[in-house]
Protein backbone atom coordinates (compact mmCIF):
# COMPACT_ATOMS: atom_id res chain seq x y z
CA UNK A 1 0.00 0.00 0.00
CA UNK A 2 1.21 3.53 -0.85
CA UNK A 3 2.41 5.76 1.97
CA UNK A 4 0.67 9.13 2.20
CA UNK A 5 2.79 12.12 3.22
CA UNK A 6 0.87 14.88 5.00
CA UNK A 7 2.06 18.17 6.47
CA UNK A 8 0.40 18.89 9.85
CA UNK A 9 0.85 21.47 12.61
CA UNK A 10 1.03 20.29 16.25
CA UNK A 11 1.62 22.83 19.03
CA UNK A 12 2.65 25.43 16.43
CA UNK A 13 5.29 23.19 14.82
CA UNK A 14 5.00 21.75 11.27
CA UNK A 15 5.52 17.99 10.95
CA UNK A 16 5.67 15.76 7.87
CA UNK A 17 3.76 12.57 8.70
CA UNK A 18 3.83 9.48 6.47
CA UNK A 19 1.20 6.81 6.89
CA UNK A 20 -0.96 4.25 5.10
CA UNK A 21 -4.18 6.03 6.12
CA UNK A 22 -5.70 8.70 3.91
CA UNK A 23 -4.85 12.38 4.37
CA UNK A 24 -8.10 13.26 6.18
CA UNK A 25 -7.52 10.59 8.85
CA UNK A 26 -3.89 11.65 9.41
CA UNK A 27 -4.98 15.30 9.78
CA UNK A 28 -7.75 14.24 12.20
CA UNK A 29 -5.21 12.42 14.43
CA UNK A 30 -2.82 15.41 14.37
CA UNK A 31 -5.65 17.83 15.31
CA UNK A 32 -6.65 15.54 18.18
CA UNK A 33 -3.08 15.50 19.56
CA UNK A 34 -2.80 19.29 19.10
CA UNK A 35 -6.08 19.77 21.01
CA UNK A 36 -4.94 17.50 23.85
CA UNK A 37 -1.63 19.41 24.10
CA UNK A 38 -3.47 22.74 24.26
CA UNK A 39 -5.71 21.40 27.04
CA UNK A 40 -2.66 20.31 29.08
CA UNK A 41 -0.93 23.67 28.48
CA UNK A 42 -4.05 25.56 29.64
CA UNK A 43 -4.41 23.37 32.73
CA UNK A 44 -0.69 23.57 33.64
CA UNK A 45 0.92 26.59 31.90
CA UNK A 46 4.17 26.18 33.86
CA UNK A 47 5.01 22.83 32.14
CA UNK A 48 7.74 22.90 29.51
CA UNK A 49 6.97 21.48 26.03
CA UNK A 50 8.58 18.10 26.73
CA UNK A 51 6.66 17.56 29.98
CA UNK A 52 3.42 18.69 28.33
CA UNK A 53 4.03 16.25 25.44
CA UNK A 54 4.73 13.37 27.88
CA UNK A 55 1.62 14.16 29.94
CA UNK A 56 -0.45 14.35 26.74
CA UNK A 57 0.93 10.94 25.68
CA UNK A 58 0.05 9.47 29.09
CA UNK A 59 -3.52 10.85 28.84
CA UNK A 60 -3.97 9.52 25.29
CA UNK A 61 -2.53 6.10 26.28
CA UNK A 62 -4.89 6.00 29.28
CA UNK A 63 -7.87 6.66 26.99
CA UNK A 64 -6.61 3.98 24.61
CA UNK A 65 -6.42 1.41 27.43
CA UNK A 66 -9.93 2.39 28.58
CA UNK A 67 -11.24 1.80 25.02
CA UNK A 68 -9.43 -1.55 24.84
CA UNK A 69 -11.06 -2.58 28.13
CA UNK A 70 -14.50 -1.47 26.84
CA UNK A 71 -13.96 -3.42 23.61
CA UNK A 72 -13.07 -6.57 25.60
CA UNK A 73 -16.19 -6.16 27.76
CA UNK A 74 -18.34 -5.70 24.64
CA UNK A 75 -16.78 -8.82 23.09
CA UNK A 76 -17.68 -10.79 26.25
CA UNK A 77 -21.25 -9.44 26.14
CA UNK A 78 -21.57 -10.39 22.46
CA UNK A 79 -20.22 -13.88 23.21
CA UNK A 80 -22.69 -14.31 26.10
CA UNK A 81 -25.55 -13.08 23.90
CA UNK A 82 -24.59 -15.61 21.23
CA UNK A 83 -24.47 -18.38 23.84
CA UNK A 84 -27.88 -17.35 25.22
CA UNK A 85 -29.30 -17.18 21.69
CA UNK A 86 -27.92 -20.63 20.93
CA UNK A 87 -29.58 -22.03 24.11
CA UNK A 88 -32.87 -20.34 23.18
CA UNK A 89 -32.73 -21.93 19.72
CA UNK A 90 -32.25 -25.35 21.32
CA UNK A 91 -35.23 -24.71 23.62
CA UNK A 92 -37.39 -23.65 20.66
CA UNK A 93 -36.37 -26.78 18.73
CA UNK A 94 -37.34 -28.94 21.72
CA UNK A 95 -40.66 -27.09 21.93
CA UNK A 96 -41.17 -27.76 18.20
CA UNK A 97 -40.58 -31.45 18.77
CA UNK A 98 -43.05 -31.48 21.69
CA UNK A 99 -45.71 -29.69 19.66
CA UNK A 100 -45.25 -32.05 16.71
CA UNK A 101 -45.45 -35.06 19.05
CA UNK A 102 -48.66 -33.71 20.61
CA UNK A 103 -50.10 -33.10 17.14
CA UNK A 104 -49.34 -36.69 16.15
CA UNK A 105 -50.91 -37.99 19.38
CA UNK A 106 -54.01 -35.83 18.83
CA UNK A 107 -54.32 -37.04 15.22
CA UNK A 108 -53.99 -40.64 16.38
CA UNK A 109 -56.69 -40.17 19.07
CA UNK A 110 -59.02 -38.50 16.55
CA UNK A 111 -58.53 -41.43 14.15
CA UNK A 112 -59.31 -43.92 16.99
CA UNK A 113 -62.42 -41.97 17.97
CA UNK A 114 -63.62 -41.88 14.36
CA UNK A 115 -63.28 -45.67 14.19
CA UNK A 116 -65.27 -46.02 17.46
CA UNK A 117 -67.96 -43.62 16.18
CA UNK A 118 -68.24 -45.60 12.95
CA UNK A 119 -68.56 -48.88 14.90
CA UNK A 120 -71.18 -47.38 17.23
CA UNK A 121 -73.14 -46.05 14.27
CA UNK A 122 -73.04 -49.52 12.66
CA UNK A 123 -74.23 -51.12 15.93
CA UNK A 124 -76.96 -48.48 16.19
CA UNK A 125 -78.17 -49.19 12.65
CA UNK A 126 -78.19 -52.92 13.45
CA UNK A 127 -80.29 -52.38 16.61
CA UNK A 128 -82.71 -50.14 14.68
CA UNK A 129 -83.09 -52.89 12.09
CA UNK A 130 -83.77 -55.47 14.82
CA UNK A 131 -86.43 -53.19 16.40
CA UNK A 132 -88.16 -52.72 13.05
CA UNK A 133 -88.20 -56.49 12.44
CA UNK A 134 -89.66 -57.12 15.88
CA UNK A 135 -92.28 -54.43 15.41
CA UNK A 136 -93.42 -55.90 12.07
CA UNK A 137 -93.58 -59.45 13.49
CA UNK A 138 -94.93 -58.28 16.85
CA UNK A 139 -98.20 -60.25 16.66
CA UNK A 140 -96.44 -63.58 16.11
CA UNK A 141 -93.93 -63.33 18.95
CA UNK A 142 -96.42 -62.37 21.66
CA UNK A 143 -96.25 -60.27 24.85
CA UNK A 144 -92.47 -60.40 25.19
CA UNK A 145 -92.06 -58.24 22.08
CA UNK A 146 -92.79 -55.00 24.00
CA UNK A 147 -90.16 -55.87 26.57
CA UNK A 148 -87.60 -56.74 23.87
CA UNK A 149 -88.43 -53.56 21.91
CA UNK A 150 -88.12 -51.41 25.03
CA UNK A 151 -84.85 -53.09 25.95
CA UNK A 152 -83.51 -52.55 22.43
CA UNK A 153 -84.73 -48.94 22.42
CA UNK A 154 -82.84 -48.37 25.68
CA UNK A 155 -79.74 -49.92 24.13
CA UNK A 156 -80.20 -47.69 21.08
CA UNK A 157 -80.40 -44.63 23.36
CA UNK A 158 -77.26 -45.80 25.16
CA UNK A 159 -75.56 -46.21 21.79
CA UNK A 160 -76.73 -42.74 20.71
CA UNK A 161 -75.30 -41.29 23.96
CA UNK A 162 -72.01 -43.11 23.37
CA UNK A 163 -71.88 -41.79 19.79
CA UNK A 164 -72.56 -38.24 21.06
CA UNK A 165 -69.82 -38.57 23.72
CA UNK A 166 -67.38 -39.96 21.16
CA UNK A 167 -68.22 -37.17 18.70
CA UNK A 168 -67.69 -34.57 21.47
CA UNK A 169 -64.33 -36.14 22.32
CA UNK A 170 -63.33 -36.13 18.64
CA UNK A 171 -64.31 -32.46 18.34
CA UNK A 172 -62.34 -31.65 21.50
CA UNK A 173 -59.25 -33.44 20.15
CA UNK A 174 -59.63 -31.62 16.82
CA UNK A 175 -59.72 -28.29 18.72
CA UNK A 176 -56.61 -29.29 20.66
CA UNK A 177 -54.87 -30.32 17.43
CA UNK A 178 -55.82 -26.98 15.88
CA UNK A 179 -54.42 -25.08 18.92
CA UNK A 180 -51.23 -27.16 18.79
CA UNK A 181 -50.93 -26.35 15.08
CA UNK A 182 -51.27 -22.63 15.90
CA UNK A 183 -48.59 -22.93 18.61
CA UNK A 184 -46.33 -24.74 16.16
CA UNK A 185 -46.78 -22.01 13.51
CA UNK A 186 -46.16 -19.30 16.15
CA UNK A 187 -42.92 -20.99 17.29
CA UNK A 188 -41.83 -21.44 13.67
CA UNK A 189 -42.44 -17.74 12.97
CA UNK A 190 -40.43 -16.72 16.08
CA UNK A 191 -37.39 -18.73 15.00
CA UNK A 192 -37.56 -17.42 11.45
CA UNK A 193 -37.33 -13.79 12.65
UniProtKB/TrEMBL annotation:
It is found in: Cytoplasm. The keyword Cell cycle applies. GO terms for biological process: division septum assembly; FtsZ-dependent cytokinesis; septin ring assembly. GO terms for cellular component: cell division site; cell septum; cytosol. SUPFAM superfamilies: Cell division protein ZapA-like (SSF102829), Tropomyosin (SSF57997). It comes from the Bacteria. Its main location: cytoplasm. Pfam families: ZapA. Residues 71-190 form a coiled coil. Keywords: Cell cycle, Cell division, Coiled coil, Cytoplasm, Septation. The keyword Acetylation does not apply. Activator of cell division through the inhibition of FtsZ GTPase activity, therefore promoting FtsZ assembly into bundles of protofilaments necessary for the formation of the division Z ring. It is recruited early at mid-cell but it is not essential for cell division. Homodimer. Interacts with FtsZ. This is Cell division protein ZapA. It comes from Peptostreptococcus stomatis DSM 17678.
Amino acid sequence: MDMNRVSVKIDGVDYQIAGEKNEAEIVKVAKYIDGELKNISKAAPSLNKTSAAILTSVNIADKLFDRDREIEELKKEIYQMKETDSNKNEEVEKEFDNVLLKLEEADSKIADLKIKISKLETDLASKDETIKKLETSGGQVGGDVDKIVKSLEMKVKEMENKVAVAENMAAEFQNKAYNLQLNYEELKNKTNK
